[in-house]
Structure formats: structure tokens, C-alpha cells
């Protein structure tokens, strides 16, 4: 009995988490490389999980025979929607309402399948509790098995299925697994509902909870306890999504990076619901306050050069907090007779965290304020104790007076530190108050409200007040479904910069004499600069030129009279910024009649007439990440279709994390392109006079060697053949893996 139910729950959870990255990836060609694709998908998954748990809770009121019959019937109904995929929402525009479009596409495509499979975890545990098995009174071990299956399914996709199989094979395999799950669920229902337990079997009284006494059978559960369950589940869920946003914003929105935070989130459940859950919880509760101060203290700081190191710290903090809070939740679990209700409220908390980060936060905040807010909530919920008894006794004499003094000191020191940083004060005037804030925070461990307030003021001191100040400046920062954009003035070189996440996306000089000069990656000596300047010689005065990714509009200043220019841009916010001369004036000065195609570039290019362009420059980035669906063989086939026979394709591959030249080389070899690469590094002479040119890596592709020779003759750059790597294959819509393209991890200072 134990083996049968373990296998059933394991397979169901494996399939449930295998389908998540698989189907979310199908949305990338429509919604680009936005990290929010995964966050909104996770919101749907958590909502569908909640429906599955609600269905299981309601179904558990019937006899097991009735439950089995109804559940098998739902399985058969859901099977009619196979194979898995996205539906096409009617009346919803993916460009104007991307989040709503994705929710509708997921609901119509896999909604019934997901709810059906999600229900089997609590339902199988409830059936097992009624089975008469000797372990029936303690079915919670099955939840650890469920999360083990979830974790394996989650990791299997990016490390096995995605690198080794194409999407059609993946969906077929999932359908076969669904059929196997149906058979196992039917067998479980038959075993419990139709085969009476052995007469000798007696269900023992419920054992004490591993981390506290379980509620007695039939005991009431108050609303205060339910709310606590919800909060303990919601905070780790929200932290998991906000951590995902950080990682995928700077690298690439794709399954391999989606699964890292979610995998750690699942590991926390495995640890706390396993046999040694109490010990894991105690360790996490002990360590969590210290890690919150070390890593959470910079939660409002704009991380730049140390983004990789901060990303690793973010993942460690997520794991420890999730173990601490989920362990506290597991320690308060009720009697198995209330099992489905417990999972229902826990699922509701997870969905609440997903709703906050996936939909509400992008609408409420212009920066990722949800992450520090969730850290403060975690500090409030941690059942931490004072580090020593002596520290605990400090607050016993006059706790109100000491607390009031600490609150005033924290607020004053937090404001002063932020002010000292802004005026570049002496280092001691910055370090000393930060040390005092940290000391008060350490002394406040075990007093949740005061500790949370100390953590908040540490965040405000280390960049928080600056972030809030930027948010109060009209037009300085905007947030959309596709990212967070900040506009900053750099007085050292008299320039204005556009940043997406931690990545520079464009610079314009505030000096009128240089305001028409394309800067940053678009320098005249860069690959794109050289080809754009050579366009009249290569194509005549009436060339038709297009580029993907508007940014600040720098490329528009290469436009010549008589040329027809078009830009493909997915985000209306970027269009508004680039066309507003008060923010950036490249477009208004150089090409005010620039045609804009709003929407995903790949879909818009597919609708563009064939052989209508002479030059196409692909420069789409989501922070430092190039959207995956714009780097596949199918995408390059679309580029070839819209270019004339002698047309030129340019691809920008500058990247901190991935080696993309071998990917393009593999695509070029399979698709008949000729390709060269120009790695431009500006000299001190190039950057004289407040010019801010930056290093860039551009690839130029043509259909023939003769046309490539003409391009090389018209430019004077050091164009090199693309490097080939046998381990890197051409990406396609059905098959792509970034594992062979990852650059060695670089941590500054090490």
C-alpha cells in the first residue's frame, strides 16, 4: 500500500512540474523574453493548484468509492484536451494585455489537465489515511514524496528533456505519463474503496507532530490559525518569484533559469516534511536572521557589477527562509482528518504570494519593492529566539522604553547613512551608523517586530531612500510587463542613460554637439555602426532598413535622407521613452518619422512582406538577455524571408553570461548564411571628449560570399569568422539548451 501510493503521488507531481517549464516556453515566441512570462505562468500554476486542492477537499467528503469514480471520470475528460499546449485566446491582444493573454492561453490549453493532476497529491494522502495501512495515521511522508517528484520533474526538463528531445516528443511523453497516472490512481481507488483492510489492521492513534502536537481528530481550526498558515505559505512563494525575476532579468528567460528558485522552494518542502524536518527547521530558524541582515540588508540596493554574486546570495537566502517558514508551517499541521483543508489553505497562501508578485507588484511599484517587503514579512514571521539568554534578559527590565529608544535610533541612523552615501561622506560616517543598525538588529533577534523594523532601516540606509527618491521623480523610472527601466543622468560625462535591470541599454550625450552621435554599443566603429554608414554604398540612397529593439533610439541617427526606416518594439513604454524628446532625443532629432511596429518582433516580421528589407539589425534585449525565440533557426528563416537577396542581417550578441557566437555559427552553417563577427573595444582616443562608446559584439550575415566580400570592402572593421563549437548545436523552437554556451562564472574580486 505504501509503495503504491508513493509511486502514484511521485508520478503525479513529476508530471505536474514537468509540464510547467515546457508549456511556459511555448509562450516565448508571443511574449518575448520577459521574466514576467514565468511569473505569470507561475501565478496560473498556483491558482490551478489551489483549484485542484479545493476540488480534492470537497471530494474528500464522499465515500472513497464515489471519490474514485468521480476522479477517474475527470481524468478521462481531461484526456480529451491532450496533447498539452497553449490555447489561442479570443479577443485578448498579447501586446496590450500580455499577462491576461498568457493566463487565458494557459487556462484554455492545460487548465483541466493541471487541476486534475494537482488534485491527486492531497487526494491520495486522504485515501491513504483511510486505507487501514499501519502508516495510515501519519500520511505526511507522502507530501515529501510529492515534492521529491516535483523537484525531479522540474530538473528533468532543462537538464534532460530540453537538451535531448524536441517539443513534439516532450508533449507525447507527457501524454503517456498522464495515461500511466490514470491507471495508478484507479488502482489506488480500487485498493482503498473496494478492498477492505485486513482484519488485524488497526489504525493507531495519531502520533505527536514532529515539531509540536498535532490537533486532535475533529478539533476545530480557528481563523487565526488559518491566516497564519496562509502567511507562512505566501511569503516563501512570493520570494521564490521575486528571486526568479532577478535571475532571469540578467541572464535569459528560459527553463534552465526558471527552475533554480522553484527547485530550492520544493527542496524546502522535502526537508521539513521528511523524517528529520524538525532539525532542519531549527537550523534554518537559527541561521535565517543572520542571513537576512547580511544579504537582505542590501535588498533595496541597485546591484550592478556584483549581480552574479548577489544572485547566488539571493538563492541561498530563499532556501533558508523557505525551510524556516515551511518548517514552522509543517510543525503546526493538524490531524490527518483535516489534511485536505490544511493543504487547501497552504495552497491559497502560495497563490496569494504568486498573485502579489506576478500581477499586483508590477502594477503597484515602479521597482522590485516586493522583494524587500517580503523579506521584512519573513522577519516578522520567523519564530527566532534571542541569540543568548543574556541578550534576552536585556529586554526584560524596561522593554517599552528600550524598544522606543531602538526605534528612534534605527530611523535616525537609517536616514543619516543614506544621506552620507548621497554626499559621498567620509567612510567612517557611513560604516559606523550601519554597524550600529546591525548591532541593534542582532540584539533584536527574538523580538520579531523590532527585528523587522531594524532590517527595514538597514535596507533604507543601503540604497532604499535613494530608490524611493528616484520613484518620486516623474519619468525617471517605469515598469511594465517586460521590465523595469531607469533613466539616470551621469554628470561625469554629461550623458543620460537608460538601464533595464542592471544592464545599460543606451546612452545619449547631453552636449548638443554630440546629441546626434550614437553612443554605447552603437558607436560608428562598432559592427552595426559600420554597416549602417555603408548602407548608401551597398544599397543606394533609397535603402529599406529595420531594426529590432528600440532602446533609446540610437540607431535612428544613422538614417540618411531617402531611406525608409522601421523599428520593431514589443514594449509601449520603451516607445514612449524614445519618442519623448525630454527623455531621449535621438528619434526626434534624426528620424521623427520612424515607423514603429508594436508587438513581438518575430510575429511582426512574419507578417512583413517578403524581400522588403535591405538591412535588418536584431538588437532585442531583456536586460542582459537576448530573447531565446529570436535566436532559433525558425527566427533566422523569418529574417531571411524579409531580406532581399543581397540583404544584410546584423545580430547583437554582447553578453556577460553566454557565448552566443557558436549558436549563430551553427545556425548559419545549417541555413546557408555567410557570417563574420566584429568585437569592438573602444580606445581612449575613441572616447575622448566625453564620448561614451562601449565594447560590443556584432555579427553580420549575408546569403553569399560575394555579398559578404562587398560588405567587408565597404567597412573597415576587423571582421573575423565565427568560432565553431561541436558541443553547441543550432537552436530551434523545439530544441535549445544554454548549458554548452554558459561562460565561466565570474565573481569580481575573486
TrEMBL record:
InterPro entries linked: MFS_trans_sf, SAM-dependent_MTases_sf
Transmembrane segments: 37-56, 68-88, 100-119, 140-160, 172-192, 229-247, 253-273, 285-303, 309-330, 342-365, 400-419, 425-445
Superkingdom classification of source: Bacteria
One BP term from GO: polyamine biosynthetic process
Keywords: Membrane, Polyamine biosynthesis, Transmembrane, Transmembrane helix
PANTHER family: THERMOSPERMINE SYNTHASE ACAULIS5
Name of this protein: Fused MFS/spermidine synthase
Protein source organism: Sandaracinobacteroides saxicola
Amino acid at each position: 500500500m505504501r509503495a503504491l501510493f508513493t509511486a502514484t503521488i511521485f508520478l503525479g507531481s513529476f508530471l505536474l512540474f514537468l509540464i510547467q517549464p515546457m508549456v511556459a516556453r511555448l509562450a516565448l515566441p508571443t511574449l518575448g523574453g520577459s521574466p514576467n512570462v514565468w511569473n505569470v505562468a507561475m501565478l496560473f500554476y498556483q491558482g490551478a493548484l489551489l483549484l485542484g486542492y479545493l476540488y480534492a477537499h470537497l471530494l474528500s467528503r464522499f465515500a472513497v468509492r464515489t471519490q474514485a469514480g468521480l476522479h477517474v471520470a475527470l481524468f478521462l475528460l481531461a484526456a480529451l484536451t491532450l496533447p498539452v499546449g497553449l490555447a489561442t485566446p479570443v479577443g485578448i491582444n498579447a501586446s496590450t494585455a500580455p499577462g491576461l493573454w498568457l493566463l487565458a492561453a494557459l487556462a484554455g490549453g492545460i487548465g483541466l489537465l493541471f487541476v486534475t493532476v494537482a488534485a491527486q497529491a492531497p487526494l491520495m494522502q486522504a485515501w491513504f489515511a483511510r486505507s487501514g495501512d499501519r502508516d495510515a495515521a501519519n500520511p505526511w511522508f507522502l507530501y515529501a514524496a510529492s515534492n521529491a517528484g516535483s523537484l525531479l520533474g522540474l530538473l528533468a526538463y532543462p537538464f534532460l528533456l530540453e537538451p535531448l528531445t524536441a517539443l513534439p516528443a516532450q508533449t507525447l511523453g507527457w501524454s503517456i505519463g498522464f495515461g500511466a497516472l490514470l491507471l495508478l490512481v484507479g488502482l489506488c481507488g480500487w485498493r482503498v474503496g473496494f478492498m477492505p483492510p485486513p482484519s488485524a489492521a488497526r489504525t493507531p492513534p495519531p502520533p505527536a507532530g514532529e515539531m509540536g502536537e498535532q490537533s486532535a481528530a475533529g478539533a476545530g481550526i480557528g481563523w487565526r490559525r488559518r491566516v497564519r498558515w496562509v502567511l507562512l505559505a505566501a511569503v516563501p512563494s512570493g520570494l521564490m518569484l521575486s528571486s526568479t525575476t532577478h535571475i532571469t532579468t540578467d541572464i535569459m528567460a528560459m527553463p534552465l533559469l526558471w527552475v533554480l528558485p522553484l527547485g530550492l522552494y520544493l527542496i524546502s518542502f522535502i526537508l521539513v516534511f521528511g523524517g528529520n524536518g524538525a532539525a532542519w527547521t531549527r537550523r534554518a530558524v537559527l541561521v535565517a536572521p543572520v542571513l537576512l541582515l547580511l544579504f537582505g540588508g542590501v535588498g533595496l540596493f541597485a546591484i550592478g557589477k556584483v549581480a552574479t554574486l548577489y544572485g547566488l546570495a539571493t538563492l541561498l537566502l530563499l532556501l533558508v527562509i523557505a525551510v524556516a517558514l515551511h518548517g514552522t508551517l509543517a510543525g503546526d499541521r493538524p490531524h490527518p482528518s483535516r489534511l485536505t483543508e490544511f493543504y487547501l489553505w497552504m495552497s491559497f497562501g502560495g497563490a496569494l504570494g504568486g498573485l502579489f508578485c506576478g500581477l499586483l507588484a508590477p502594477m503597484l511599484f515602479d521597482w522590485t519593492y516586493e522583494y524587500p517587503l517580503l523579506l521584512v514579512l519573513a522577519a516578522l514571521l520567523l519564530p527566532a529566539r534571542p541569540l543568548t539568554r543574556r541578550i534576552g534578559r536585556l529586554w526584560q527590565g524596561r522593554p517599552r522604553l528600550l524598544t522606543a529608544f531602538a526605534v528612534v535610533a534605527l530611523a535616525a541612523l537609517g536616514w543619516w547613512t543614506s544621506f552620507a552615501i548621497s554626499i559621498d561622506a567620509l567612510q567612517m560616517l557611513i560604516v559606523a551608523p550601519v554597524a550600529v543598525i546591525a548591532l541593534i538588529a542582532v540584539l533584536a533577534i527574538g523580538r520579531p517586530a523590532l527585528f523587522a523594523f531594524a532590517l527595514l532601516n538597514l535596507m533604507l540606509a543601503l540604497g532604499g531612500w535613494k530608490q524611493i527618491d528616484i520613484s518620486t521623480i516623474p519619468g525617471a523610472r517605469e515598469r511594465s510587463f517586460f521590465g523595469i527601466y531607469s533613466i539616470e543622468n551621469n554628470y561625469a560625462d554629461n550623458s543620460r542613460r537608460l538601464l533595464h535591470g542592471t544592464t545599460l541599454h543606451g546612452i545619449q550625450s547631453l552636449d548638443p554637439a554630440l546629441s546626434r552621435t550614437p553612443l554605447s554599443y552603437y558607436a560608428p566603429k562598432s559592427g552595426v555602426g559600420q554597416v549602417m554608414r555603408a548602407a548608401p554604398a551597398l544599397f543606394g540612397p533609397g535603402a529599406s532598413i529595420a531594426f529590432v529593439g528600440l532602446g533609446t533610439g540610437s540607431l535612428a541617427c544613422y538614417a540618411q535622407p531617402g531611406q525608409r526606416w522601421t523599428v520593431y518594439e514589443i514594449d509601449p513604454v520603451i516607445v514612449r521613452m524614445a519618442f519623448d524628446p525630454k527623455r531621449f532625443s535621438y528619434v526626434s532629432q534624426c528620424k521623427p518619422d520612424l515607423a514603429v511596429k508594436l508587438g513581438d518582433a518575430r510575429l511582426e516580421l512574419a507578417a512583413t512582406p517578403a524581400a522588403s528589407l535591405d538591412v535588418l539589425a536584431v538588437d532585442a534585449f531583456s536586460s542582459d538577455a537576448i530573447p531565446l525565440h529570436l535566436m532559433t533557426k525558425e527566427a533566422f528563416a523569418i529574417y531571411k524571408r524579409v531580406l532581399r537577396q543581397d540583404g544584410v542581417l546584423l545580430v547583437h550578441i554582447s553578453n556577460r553570461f553566454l557565448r552566443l557566437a557558436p549558436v549563430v555559427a551553427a545556425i548559419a552553417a545549417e541555413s546557408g548564411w555567410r557570417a563574420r563577427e566584429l568585437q569592438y573595444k573602444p580606445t581612449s582616443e575613441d572616447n575622448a571628449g566625453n564620448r561614451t562608446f562601449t565594447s560590443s559584439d556584432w555579427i553580420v550575415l549575408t546569403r553569399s560570399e560575394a555579398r559578404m566580400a562587398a560588405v567587408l570592402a565597404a567597412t573597415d572593421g576587423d571582421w573575423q569568422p565565427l568560432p565553431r563549437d561541436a558541443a553547441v548545436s543550432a537552436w530551434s523552437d523545439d530544441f535549445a539548451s544554454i548549458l554548452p554556451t554558459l561562460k565561466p562564472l565570474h565573481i569580481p574580486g575573486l
